[in-house]
Design brief:
Layout (H helix, E strand, L loop, with lengths): L17 H9 L5 H11 L24 H21 L5 H22 L3 H23 L18 H22 L4 H20 L3 H4 L1 H22 L6 H29 L4 H21 L3 H4 L1 H14 L5 H21 L1 H9 L16
Helix pairs in contact: 3-4, 3-5, 4-5, 5-6, 6-7, 7-10, 9-10, 10-11, 11-13, 13-14
Keywords: Membrane, Transmembrane, Transmembrane helix
């Protein structure tokens, strides 16, 4: 096979056609995983090799490859909104969700399996499980969807119906992932399994989750973080799809961990207090340290709003105007984020230097 290269020595991506790769998978010449590995290898600079590959940024997220992906994605969003609003009022909501799930699967056959478009595959993957969940729960409850709010868990009488519906949803999510191999699908499967575990636990000990929501979500968040680290440890060089799977799990774990801890703190001290603001800043610093060690900025995203609130509250205590407090808060927060982002690798080298000869570096990316 001849290789066409660009002026900087990188193989021309057009020389490895996605359509030809998809045809090779269909013919059984390559597996989906092998096709993904070949695509990753094909765009490496010549002579780097898998072991010698270095990235300026190891937290790459491969879910958009060009404006063509964005253009198709816009069409998918418009189509699904039109379908849902068009069916709403004609049939039950759970039937609308079921029809939508079937349409999503059909669209995924074209755009995810055949054309292998990154962003459309991502959107279809994250849309399938919620629609399928609503459809399954509505089917098992004969259209009588349980009402949920921030202070209520699933009604006890509905659990025996919701549990088999959830099992069916997990099976559907697994089949969707096995069919299309979109990394974010792992997050959907994980969420379904954790939800099922919560249902079973609440069935065994009724009311315990509802009375301990913050602690429950903290356990869930830490469990998802542990799973994400499991995928990260398989790919410390961040060159396979395990890295993408871990990214979405980290992004899902972060808000659960942050919100649950701060909910427990606010119950003890209230949100309008210096102690609460101090805890928020301390929590952010701890998360920043963990994020630097594991090289995952996603862990900090959910804490940003809380950090801004805490900084703003402390500035207001200096008896300044509301406008000044907002301006200073935004300036401090923006500078802090830019400082961490710009000095990310420098900070990582400093943090990981004491662990240079320890097993830790076998599980996290080596500092650049």
């Amino acid at each position: 096979m001849t290789t066409t290269t660009t002026s900087d020595g990188v193989p021309d991506p057009q020389a490895l056609s996605p359509d030809r790769l998809a045809a090779a998978v269909e013919a059984g010449i390559l597996s989906e995983h092998q096709a993904d590995q070949l695509t990753e290898f094909w765009v490496m600079p010549q002579g780097s090799g898998a072991s010698g590959l270095t990235h300026a940024d190891r937290e790459e997220v491969r879910f958009v490859r060009g404006f063509h992906d964005i253009f198709i994605s816009i069409g998918l969003v418009v189509l699904m909104f039109g379908l849902v609003f068009g069916l709403h009022g004609w049939v039950d909501d759970w039937l609308v969700a079921g029809i939508s799930a079937v349409v999503i699967w059909g669209l995924a056959e074209l755009f995810a399996r055949r054309k292998r478009l990154a962003l459309p595959s991502f959107l279809l993957s994250i849309a399938f499980t919620p629609f399928f969940f609503i459809a399954c729960v509505g089917w098992f409850l004969e259209g009588d969807m349980p009402s949920l709010d921030s202070n209520k868990w699933l009604p006890a009488g509905d659990l025996l119906d919701v549990i088999p519906a959830t099992v069916l949803v997990i099976i559907g999510a697994v089949l969707f992932y096995l069919r299309f191999r979109v990394p974010v699908g792992v997050a959907s499967i994980s969420a379904g399994c954790l939800f099922l575990g919560a249902l079973l636990f609440d069935l065994a000990v009724p009311g315990i989750i509802e009375s301990n929501l913050a602690a429950f979500f903290l356990v869930v968040g830490l469990s998802i973080f542990a799973l994400a680290m499991g995928f990260d440890s398989r790919d410390p060089k961040r060159v396979t799809l395990n890295s993408d799977k871990a990214f979405w799990l980290h992004l899902m774990a972060s808000p659960l961990i942050v919100h649950s801890i701060l909910s427990m703190v606010s119950e003890a001290s209230g949100t309008e207090s210096t102690s609460y603001s101090t805890v928020v800043i301390a929590l952010f610093l701890i998360l920043a340290t963990v994020a630097l060690i594991v090289d995952r900025r996603a862990l900090l995203v959910s804490a940003m709003s809380y950090l801004g609130f805490a900084i703003g509250y402390l500035i207001i205590q200096a008896d300044v105007s509301e406008e000044t407090a907002i301006a200073v808060t935004m300036l401090v927060l923006g500078c802090f984020i830019l400082l961490i982002g710009s000095a990310w690798q420098v900070l990582r080298r400093g943090l990981l230097k004491p662990f240079a000869d320890t097993p830790l570096l076998r599980f996290v990316p080596a500092p650049n």
